[in-house]
Every structure is written in C-alpha cells, then in structure tokens.
Design brief:
Blueprint: H1 2-6, H2 22-33, H3 37-50, H4 54-76, H5 85-93, H6 95-132, H7 138-158, H8 160-189, H9 205-219, H10 235-264, H11 278-285, H12 289-323, H13 342-361, H14 366-398, H15 404-426, H16 436-457, H17 461-474
Helix pairs in contact: 2-8, 2-10, 2-12, 3-9, 3-10, 4-9, 4-10, 4-14, 4-15, 5-6, 5-14, 5-17, 6-7, 6-12, 6-13, 6-14, 6-16, 7-12, 7-13, 8-11, 8-12, 9-14, 9-15, 11-12, 12-13, 14-15, 14-16
Length: 475
C-alpha cells in the first residue's frame, strides 16, 4: 500500500506519546499566535487600513474565530492526530479537500514563520539601538534571522516538551510586559474613554476589509495545538479546551490593545499607522520610557517563540502528509532518540530562514516584508478555516450525529471569513496587497500539481488516504 511505503523504515519510531500537559498544549497555540506581535507590528497596519475601526475589526475577528473553534472542536473532541485541520477536513469532506487544506496549512504555518523572523529582526534592531546606540544594519538583520531560525530548529528537533515549555515562559513574560505598559498608560494619562473610536467616521469598506485580513493574521495558528494530537495528554479534552481558551484570551487582549494604542496616539506627532515601534512610543507618551525597552526585549523573544511554534506545527502537517505519500517519504521519518519529525522540522526551518532572507536581500523593508508575508499566510489559514467549517456538519452527519446547529454555525462562520477572503479580491486593495491573494493561489497550485502527479503514479492513493483518515476518526 502507498501509505506503508511512505511511512519509512520499519524501525523508525513514531512521535512521542502523551507527554504534553494542558498548559504546554496551550503554549503551542499561544506561541503560534505570538500575541506581542500584534501591538508591536500588526495593529499599526490594521489602523492604517481601518482607522478608528481597528478595535471593531478585532472584535469581528474574535467572534468569527469562536465560530471556527466550534467546528474544530467537533473533530478535536472525537479524534486526535498530528495532521491538524488536514486530517479534520479529510474526515468530513474526503481526501482531495484534505490535500488542499493540508497545503494551505503548510503555506500558512511556514510563511508565518518567515514573517516573524522579520518581526524579530525589527525589534532586535530597536533593542540594539536603545541599549547600545547601534543603528540596525543588514548584517544584524541576517544574524538575527540565522540565530532565530537555528534555535527554532534545534528546539523543535530536540524535544517537543522542551520547546513548548520554553514557549510558555517566553510568551507569559512578554504578554505580562504589554499589559503592565497598557495599565501604566491609563493610570498616568487618565484616558479611559475615547469617544472617537465608537464611531466609524472615515472608515471605508475596502479599508475595513484590508484591516480585517490583518486582524485575522493576529489570530492565525490558534488551532495549532491540534497538531499535537499524539503528543498531548488526554488529547480529546486538552486540545479542544486549549483552542477555545486561546481564542477567548487573545481576542480580548487584541481588542483591548488596539483600543489602547489608537487612544494613545490621538494627537501624537507620529501616526500609529506610520510607527515601527508603537509600544515604545506609547511608553514615552505614558512617561514610562523604560517599559519601551522592556517591551522591545519581550517582543523579540515573543517572535522567537512564534518561530518555534510555526516550525513545530508546520513540520507535523508535513509529517502527516508525507505518511500519505503527498510529500517525499523522507519527511515521514521520526528521530530514533527524540521522537520528533526531524526531517520535516529541518525542511520547515530551512524555508523559514531562506524566504525572508531573499526578500531582505532584494531590498524589501523589514516591516513591509512582515506585512506582505503575513497577508499571504492569512489566506492559507482562512482557506483552511473555511474548509473545516464546511466539513464539520458533514463529519457529524457521516457519524449519524445530525446537528442542525452545526449547519447554522457553518453558514455563519463561512460568511464571516468570506468577508475578508472575497473582499480582499473584490474590493481591490492598493498594490501590492491586491496581488498577494494570487501569490497564495500559486503556492497552493504547486501542492495541487504534486497531488495530481502522485495520484497518477499511485492510483490507489486516494482510497488509501480515505481509509487512514476514517481510522483516525474512529480512533
């Protein structure tokens, strides 16, 4: 059978089982989101597009992704595997749609990893300037790329438990610094109510949609805990809980911080949309400059934690698809000592390093590269989220669990996600954002062509994948 041949040598061990606690599973999702990246890098982009409607964009995105969480958890409560949404979509819609969602996720996780390398380099430069008076240079940027990518590879290669604990500590520290600074701003300035933000004056439809795409980018990867289906303890309980807790917590955090930053920059000399270090400037506005430097350190390590999470999650989707013959069979190997998908980890980390390096050497500014890559990655996640929302009621019906509420929730979640995906094409945002959806489609087409090629060589492949996915659902 194709699946047996793709799985690699018989002596190759599987992934390490039942080693991650609930908090460590949460750490995977939270680190993949990289909460500190949003106030540091994404909220200014959302504001530049949506203006004072930024916090409304985050509130909208939170509701939409809570609906998606409902659908993800229909699967996560019933089956667990390292394939994440690739497996879930296959269980509901069949192997062909599973392949499309799998390639979407691979693009999404790895391109997000590329983006956060740019974010880490940006804030490492801010930190170097604040502490040592060193102006950021291209060699410093490349050095940060190399260090972050290499360290992310090592942690993911070495031990999934070690990497999740490391991410949990880093994200806890960096989010704590952000919240302390926000509270300090309100205490020092007394600006609590900002009436300007409760109107949509000056907000255009196209601007709101572009801002919404970036708002969704703040959340992407919230479901990545589902890729730890074999490694989590009590996965049918811990994974659904972690996905829900993550969306609720970060949704409240992003909405609060977007409101805070827009309020803080009211009347300030520099526009929020033009700032490359908004939290550092917010610290100056609040008269707490030390917190700006502290935040730059937190943002740098937060981006690093996200890079680790992206390599972890992307590698596990590659691993799952390789076992089905959809990626080279070598990527289905696991390390004999560490029980990690070491080949898939190495592939993921190499791409995460090389793609932003090529962009920077091509004279793309760091923040522009971050936003461009983030835009492309968001389409990968949104496409997978739409598919899992459609697959959920189909999956329940196949199991004989007819659920009218799931159908209604499916329609609502697809509609809310389509506002960003379809709107970003129909409303024709300014270049180069109008071209980025087609960049994503081109990347998906590469995966599609690979699927066609493998399917022609192995006619029984689709039936074998379907049988394996049904086995995961039954397990």
């Amino acid at each position: 059978m194709p699946l047996e041949r793709a799985a690699g040598p018989e002596h190759t061990p599987g992934l390490r089982r039942d080693c991650l606690s609930f908090l460590e599973v949460v750490a995977q999702s939270v680190a993949n989101i990289a909460p500190t990246a949003t106030p540091a890098l994404i909220i200014p982009g959302v504001f530049a597009a949506a203006g004072r409607g930024a916090w409304e964009a985050y509130a909208f995105a939170t509701v939409a992704l809570l609906l998606v969480t409902y659908h993800i958890n229909q699967f996560a409560r019933r089956s667990a595997s390292p394939g994440a949404l690739y497996t879930f979509v296959g269980q509901g819609m069949g192997p062909s749609w599973a392949v499309i969602s799998g390639w979407s996720l691979i693009v999404a996780y790895i391109v997000t990893g590329c983006a956060v390398l740019c974010g880490a380099a940006n804030y490492a430069g801010v930190l170097a300037q604040a502490l040592f008076g060193v102006t950021p240079t291209l060699p410093l940027t490349i050095a940060v790329f190399a260090v972050v990518a290499l360290a992310a590879w090592y942690l993911s290669y070495r031990d999934v438990e070690l990497s999740t604990k490391f991410m949990l500590v880093l994200e806890g520290i960096s989010v704590g610094v952000v919240l302390l600074l926000a509270v300090g701003f309100y205490v020092r300035t007394g600006r609590v109510v900002d009436p300007h933000q409760f109107s949509l004056a000056g907000v255009t439809g196209g601007g709101f949609v572009q801002g919404l795409v970036l708002a969704y980018f703040s959340f992407v990867g919230f479901e990545s805990a589902t890729a730890l289906g074999h490694e989590a303890k009590d996965p049918l309980r811990s994974i659904p809980r972690s996905v829900l807790v993550t969306v609720l917590a970060v949704g409240a955090f992003f909405t609060f911080m977007s409101y805070t930053l827009v309020s803080g920059f009211e009347g300030y000399a520099t526009s929020l949309g033009a700032s490359n270090q908004p939290m550092t400037e917010l610290a100056r506005i609040a008269g707490l400059p030390f917190f700006g430097t502290l935040f730059a350190a937190g943002a740098t390590v937060g981006q690093f934690a996200c890079a680790v999470a992206c390599v972890n999650a992307g590698a596990r989707v590659i691993y799952a698809m390789s076992k089905h013959g959809l990626v080279h069979a070598a990527a289905a190997g696991t390390h004999e000592t560490h029980a990690t998908p070491h080949v898939a980890v190495t592939i993921s980390a190499a791409i995460v390093f090389l793609a932003p390096l090529i962009m920077i050497l091509g004279h793309v500014a760091l923040l522009d590269a971050f936003l461009f890559l983030g835009f492309v990655a968001t389409f990968g996640f949104l496409f997978a989220y739409i598919l899992v929302s459609i697959a959920s009621p189909m999956f329940l019906r196949r199991r004989g669990e007819h659920n009218p509420a799931a159908v209604v929730m499916s329609v609502l979640s697809v509609a809310m996600l389509a506002v960003a995906t379809v709107g970003s094409v129909v409303l024709n945002p300014a270049p180069p954002y109008n071209y980025l959806p087609y960049v994503f489609l081109a990347l998906i087409a590469i995966g599609g062509l690979r699927f066609v090629y493998v399917r022609l060589k192995q006619p029984g492949l689709v039936a074998a994948i379907a049988a394996d996915l049904i086995g995961d659902a039954a397990g």
